UniProtKB/TrEMBL annotation:
InterPro entries: CPA3_antiporter_subunitC, NUOK/Mnh_C1-like. The chain crosses the membrane at residues 6-23, 30-51, 71-96. Belongs to the CPA3 antiporters (TC 2.A.63) subunit C family. One of its GO terms (cellular component) is plasma membrane. Keywords: Cell membrane, Membrane, Transmembrane, Transmembrane helix. It is a multi-pass membrane protein. It comes from the Bacteria. It is found in: Cell membrane. It comes from Nocardia camponoti. This is NADH-ubiquinone oxidoreductase, chain 4L. PANTHER family: ANTIPORTER SUBUNIT MNHC2-RELATED (PTHR34583).
Amino acid sequence: MSANVFLLLVVGVLIACGVYLILERIVSKMLLGMILLGNAVCLLILTLSGPDGKPPIMGTTDTAHANDADPLAQAMVLTAIVITMGLAAFILALAYRAFMLTTSEDVNDDPEDAHVAARREREDPER
């Protein structure tokens, strides 16, 4: 079985861009990164599910169903789409709530994290 190298390259680029956007401190960029990762997963599942019209498992002795499409990849993509949209709705709700409380979209550093880092620096100055 050979996969389409161009589609795998597109999946790699989508995942790289998605991870880069998720690591940003702005909620809208995090949301775009999650959507890109969801689309990359859907494309990866469809790419690796095999050629069109044939099941992904080769070598079966039953030749009557050799040209049937496997519904598993389609079901997994549909599930991935639903999960991505649910996660996007959750992130949008968090962004709306954070904007109403702070009137800013940027996620600030936690003061407790700064306190722990300062305490660790006092205890072990070689770090």
